[in-house]
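Lecture 7, part B: from sequences to assemblies.

Below are the input chains for today's worked example.
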Amino acid sequence: MRPHIIFRYTGQVLLLNSIFLLISAGISVLYQDDSFFPLIYTALIAFLFGIFPMIFVPAATNISHKEGLLTVVAGWVLSCLIGMIPYALWGGEFSIINAWFESVSGFTTTGATVINNIEALPAGILFWRASTHWIGGIGVIMFVLSIASSMGMVGMVLYRSEISPVAFTQFKMQARNTVRIISYVYLGLTFLEIVLLLLAGMNLFDAVTHSFATIATGGFSTKNLSIAYYDSPAIEAVISVFMILSGMNFALIFAVILGKFTSLRLSSALKYYLFSNLIAILAATLVNMSGSYDGFWTSFRFTSFQILSVGTSTGFANADSSIWPPFSQLVIIFFTLQCACAGSTSGGIKTDRFVLMYKSIARKFRQMRYPNAVFSITMNGNKVSNETAEAAVIYILFYVFIVFLGGLISTLFNVDALSAFSGAAAMMGNVGPGLSTVGSLENYAALPAIVKLIFSGIMLLGRLEIYGLIMFLYPKTWIRV
Amino acid sequence: MIFIKVQKILIIYSYEIYLIITYFRVEDKDGIFMKLKTKILAGFLTISAMLAVAGLWSITRMNWMGENVENILENNYKSINAAKGMIKSLEREDSAILMIINGEAQKYQNVLLPADSIFAKHFAIAKNNITIPGEKLYPELKAKLSVANGKPIDKEWYFSEVHESLLAVMEEAENLQNINDEEMYKTAKNISESAERALMPGIIAIIAAIVFSLIFSYMINYYLIKPIRDITKEITKFIKVKKSFNYEAESRDEIYELANSVRLLTSRATEIDRQV
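Predicted structure of the full complex, as structure tokens:
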């Protein structure tokens, strides 16, 4: 293990953060608010910590997988630590724990907030909140890779550690190309959404911050009522479309841009993602018609937005889903666990693993009928190894166990069962809103400090696909190479 | 003041940008390297930059707090005193009017005139000290009070017009007092919060400096002390068992030069040994 190599590459992540902090400080000057010093001071700290290892440590020619993984996790944790400083320094509703929660929520693209009055935050801080989403959305390391073109094999190892293992099999190309693809798609979608939101009637600041939050499947809004504030079907439609796109595997989007439509047809995860969302929206729309809304279109408007928002792990809200009938609330919980495709910016278990699980179950049934036959699982036209299928099922079980454990521990601190479990699931899936007191139009401000810390840990676990953070915290990882 | 601070920040940034440029130049051209002195200096400058900015900011916050305390004394406390003075003088004026209604004309003169003068004095203070939005209604006071002037004094007139007017004026004076009380409380609360926040940059700078010092000492150990030890070990091996000097410097600095020089020296020594 070479800690100096980890210092060097996490330093680059901090440098990236310092650039966005500097931009946020510029926004603060532009809007003449009082967040300039917190932002510029943090930018300076991030810059100094980022640049210093580069002075001492020369670029590495090779890097082990473990070093790559630790760099990614360290980059994320350090980003969260640096990200909380402007909040803590600015003050207001940000206590130290609130600042940590908000920062983790931003970088992990969860979008859960502990702030009651978001509209009271200065523009600089609001922009920084949105930036944490945008940086976190594509992955801190992915960003660094895209700007550090000289990293060669180092980039490949870091990339392997960063991206979801399920998605990795779908990118059959060099890491640098993949990074370029993801960056192009990410930037293109962000820009396009900004333009469309402007046309739909949003002002430039809101359009930029909401686009950052949508493409990163984050969910931080600049308004207390989230998207419900605008009460605009046009804005909701634009955001819905981009939520769907952000939940798709970015390599597939790029393939479509290049005219390779066969990739779409072959992707089982994508077909399942779109189909499951469609069925859920239609079913919940009909159920909500009798319970919460008058008329099909009104019900469709609110139900589709809310389900897509949760189903892509974005977390925006245009309605209060806590008042929905039990069926629709359970649909929300299911999508909180499932979320969207691997290779996207969304969190959760991911549709790819669900498809593998369904196929494993189907194979088990077939195996019971024909004990001597050999059945294999295929995905996107390719055979999937038993090991991969098994890993997906184990991951789902481990995931649900952590959600259960997180919820259970939260109930010890006087959090009601529905808020605790839906909150833990929303944190693990990096979704944002849960149900009951942490519902779509509520926030996490009222939770006890210890629960906020637990939820922050769960957010990081979810973002780093569980194993990453566990390995980071496991002492032997640091001792043995 | 802010300009100077921004200028200082820019100087720090410029220095760091210079370091980056120098660093990349090192990577591009073989032979040119960043000296150990520069690297160590950069470390110390980094720590001092963090502490300096934190210090500057804490000073700014302290100044802000000082100014606010001064504001409380200047604006709110003065207005509260003026309001109290007005209320007191209005009560006296009210008593004076009641005295004349009761036929005590002499006492009326002795009480009303000084009270009127005190009211006018406090009113002038309050009028010249309008600093918060709620205070802007205040100039209407004088107009209301003037209702009492020049009218024949009888009970009916007093209770139908003057008494109500006096009560209204007193109410407004009380409002003025309340507004300033609230503002004073709000500012004091802000100052108290700000005092806590003023500690924050210092705390962060201390934590950052400690973490940075640990990283710095690791770097010094790994890129300065360890190579010297390794080179010494290699030289000892060369002297004792004539093992060829085998050390590759990771960084391009004096250590790299030292290793190259020792390599050259040992290879020449080996060559001389062979010749002998």
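Note for the exam: Chain B touches chain A through 36 residues (CB under 8 Å). Keep this in mind when comparing with the next example.
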